[in-house]
Amino acid sequence: MRSNRMAFLITALMLAASIGAVVARPEEKAASLESAISLEAVVPKHFGDWREEPQRIVQVVNPQAQDLLDKIYSETLSRAYVNSGGYRVMLSIAYGSDQRGDLRAHRPENCYPAQGFTLHREEPGHLATPFGEIPVQRLFTSKGSREEPVTYWFKFGDEAVPGDRAARNLRKRLVELRYNFTGRIPDGLLFRVSSIDPDQVRANQLQDQFINQLLQAVSPAERKRLSGLGDS
Amino acid sequence: MSEILHTKPYWRSVGFEWLPVVAGLLILYVPTFYDLALMIWLRDGDAHGPIILAVIVWLIWDKRRVLLAVPVSTAPATGLALLVIGLLLYILGRSQGIMIFQVGALVPILAGVLLAMRGWTALRALWFMLLFIVYLVPLPGYFEDAITLPLKQNVSVIAEHILYTAGYPIAHEGVILTVGPYQLLVADACAGLNSMFSLSAIGLLYLYLMRYKSWLHNGLVLASLLPIAFCANIVRVIILVLVTYHFGDAAGQGFVHGFSGIVLFVVALTTILLLDAVLVTFFKPKAPAQ
Which chain A residues are Cβ-neighbours of B140 within 8 angstroms? Predict the structure, then answer.
C-alpha cells in the first residue's frame, strides 16, 4: 500500500475511535437525575433515643486533605450523637456524585491506619433492619488507649456493596456496567458509624440500634439513598 | 544527494504524509491531555507530566530522519492490528474515564502507526519513546494508595528514629510526627512516590542518552534510582521537621516546604550522577581507539 493511502487509513481509524469514545460516554451523573441529596437536612439531629451532641473539640483539618476530600466527595457530614444512657456514637457520611476511577471513595481500612490507628480485625457482617439486610464491614481499631469499633457500608450506585474486597469489586463492576448501559455515572455513599468502646460486641449492638433508629426516622426515599434498602 | 531527493515526490521528502496521522493523533489526544492537565497535572507533586510529554515529543523529533525516510519495508498487517487494539483500548478508557487505558493506549497506537508507516526499523529506532510513555500514565488510585501508605509509614518511622537519636523530642503516631509543640502530618505528597516516579524517569532518560555498553553499569544505576529517591525523601522530611522545630510552623509550611522539594530533587540527582561518575571509572572502555 502506498504510504499516503496508509496514512489516510490510519487517520480514518483514529477519527472513528474518537467518535466512538464520545458516543460510548455516559454523560449523566446518577445524582443529577435525582434531586441533590443534602446530608445536613436528610439526617435528623434527633431521632429515637439519640440526639446530636455538639462537638466540643473543633477538629483540626489539614487543608491539603480537605482539598482532596472536597474533590472526591460532593458532600460530607460528621456528627456525634449520644443516647439516654450517655453512650456516644460518631456518624460520618461522605457522598460523591462520581465514583469512577480516581474519584472513588476511600476505604476506612486505609484511612484509620493513616491516622495512626492500628487495624486489629476486619470482617464482613450483615446488619438486620426492618427493611432488609445491609452488607456491612466491621472493623476494630485502636490508637493508644482509644479503642474504636467501626461499622460501615459503602453504597455504590443504588445498592450497598459487600465489605469484603473481592466481592465488592465484582459487585461494583456489575453495578457500573448496568449504569453504563443506561448512560449514567454511578454515585457513591460511605456510611460510617464508630464509638470509643473497648467492648466490640456492645459497640456493634449499639451501632446497629443507632443505624436502625436512624433509618426508621428518615423518609423511604432518603432511606433508599442512604442504605440502598427499599424502593424509592 | 540532491538528485536522489528530486526523484521522489516533493510532499514525501518533507513528510506531508504524516500530516493526517498527526491530525488524527491530535484529535484523539488533545482532549485526553486537557483532562490530564486539569485533573492530575495541577495536583501537588504531579507536575512532571508536561515535562515527560515534552521529552516524548523531543524523542520523536530526535528520530525525524527515520520517520521522514522512504520506508524500505513496512508491516501493515501487524501495524494496523496493533493500532486497532490501541484504539479499542482508547475508546474504553475515554468513555469510562479510565486514564490508565486512555494514556496507555498510546503505546500500541504509536507502535502500530510506526509499523504500518515505516516498518520495524522505525519501531526499533523509537523503542525508548514508547517505553517512556509509561511515565505519562497516571498511577491508578488503588495502586497509589497501596504503595503510598507503607511508604509514608516507613518515612515517618525512619525520620523519627534518626531525629530521636539526634536528641530531638519527637514521636510518631501513624503518619503524624509530633516534634516539641508541633504536629506534622506526613501527607501523601511527602511519601515520595511522585519523586520516585520522576527520578526514575530522569534516570532512564539519562542512561538512554549516555548509551553505556555495559549492562552491569546500566543495571547498577537503575537499581540505585529508587533507594536514592527514598533516602532523599527522608532527608526532605527531616529538613522540614527541623525547620518547623527551630523556626516555627509558618516557616515549615511556607517557602521552605516547596523549596525542600527542589532540594530533594537536587540531592537525589547529584547522588545519581556521583554514583555514575564512580561507575564510569570502573567500566571505562579499555581501548577506545578500536
Answer: 101
